[in-house]
Amino acid sequence: MKKAVFTLAILSIIFVLAACGKSTEVKTETVQPDQAQTEPTKSEQAPVDSLQLLKNEKAGEYLADPQGRALYYFKKDEAGKSNCSGDCLANWPAFTQEDFAVPEGFDKKDFDTITREDNGKKQFTYKGFPLYYFAKDQQKGDVNGQGVKEVWFVINSETAFE
């Protein structure tokens, strides 16, 4: 019984300390009457993140997401259609991030989306070909999927789809 009361007391103290540690700061901004403020429209707002062009000895330059994870294409895909599903998709997850800018050397018009036939979700494409991650790439700069089974390759501005 004493053990239960002691444990409850300790948990109560931790809860109180955690609650005291949280700060709720309220920021206010004074707007002068002569300052015209306009809310930018969605098309005027800058994209949240930017794709990156990274370089690796093995793969050369390659396109990566904003966190530095390499983006790949699958040689067996067709323009506008993914041929990777099931176990393939578990190892090669679809790139689905929205609202990104592209690095120099790439044209934003070359990026679009498809709706996957297997799960109905949107997947981003480059020049019509779906983009993927490789599940074994664990950190920024990994390109472990480059050349896997001679059908998986990183994307770069020179990528030519066959």
From TrEMBL:
Transmembrane segments: none annotated. The keyword Cell membrane does not apply. Residues 1-18 form the signal peptide. InterPro entries: Lipoprotein_repeat. The keyword Signal applies. Keywords: Signal. This is Secreted repeat protein with Y-X4-D motif. It comes from Brevibacillus porteri.
